[in-house]
Design goal:
The structure is a homodimer of 118-residue chains. Chain A has one domain: Jelly Rolls (Sandwich). Chain A is globular, with a radius of gyration of 13 Å. By secondary structure, chain A is mainly beta. In chain A, strands 2, 3, 4, 5, 6, 7 and 8 form a seven-stranded antiparallel β-sheet that branches. The first copy, chain A, is 5% helix and 47% strand. The interface between A and B is large, with 37 and 37 residues.
């Protein structure tokens, strides 16, 4: 059994706002992602979405106000709460939840499918 | 809603191998802990236990061999797998699972109840 180097996995991603599952436990997936700019506003009605910042900073925009996260911060977006992550610079994330949410309905913007990291 | 600074929460702990729940999502708890030395060998039959190293290093001793974790590494000890975490120096952890496991049956050594961090 091998440890999962989260920063290495996140750095190796080539597409923004896509999630790569790196581990699973107790019905939850551990997924790395990199982001820049904003996703679309969206809601997950079936699951809470946990953000843990591995590198950089991100603002979780909520209709009730913004939540700013720095490296080492964890934040849970409860199910049903509309949100729109926004990163001025590239951010690397660990996302935790029972399934992958990075589809079009999950907020993934159209441009992110073709934009690759430098 | 506020972000959870995992490193701050871990640093504020005063007892080794005790878990403090800092967030909850999808039936799993996010718990910070600090460790030094070894716990007892133990098994969780009811849950997988996920380790994420926030600061320092830790070796997860398994009967099949050791797994060494550095900062930013994640490792899942599957349910039913006997393990014994060992840290030469103080390590700060995020542990994820459906309940707190830091009781005597969960491997917490007797000395850790009275030993406080410098």
């Amino acid at each position: 059994m091998e440890p999962v180097d989260l920063c290495d996995h996140a750095a190796a991603l080539t597409e923004y706002w896509s999630q790569k599952t790196v581990a699973e436990a107790n019905g939850n997936l551990f997924k790395v992602a990199k982001g820049i700019g904003a996703t679309n506003w969206h809601t997950h009605d079936d699951q809470d979405e946990t953000f843990l910042v591995l590198r950089g900073e991100i603002t979780i925009q909520l209709r009730m106000g913004d939540v700013h996260l720095s490296e080492g911060d964890l934040f849970v977006v409860p199910r049903g709460v509309e949100h729109c992550p926004l990163a001025a610079d590239e951010v690397h994330l660990l996302l935790i939840g029972p399934s992958v949410t990075s589809n079009a309905l999950g907020g993934k913007p159209a441009w992110s499918y073709s934009k690759h990291s430098a």
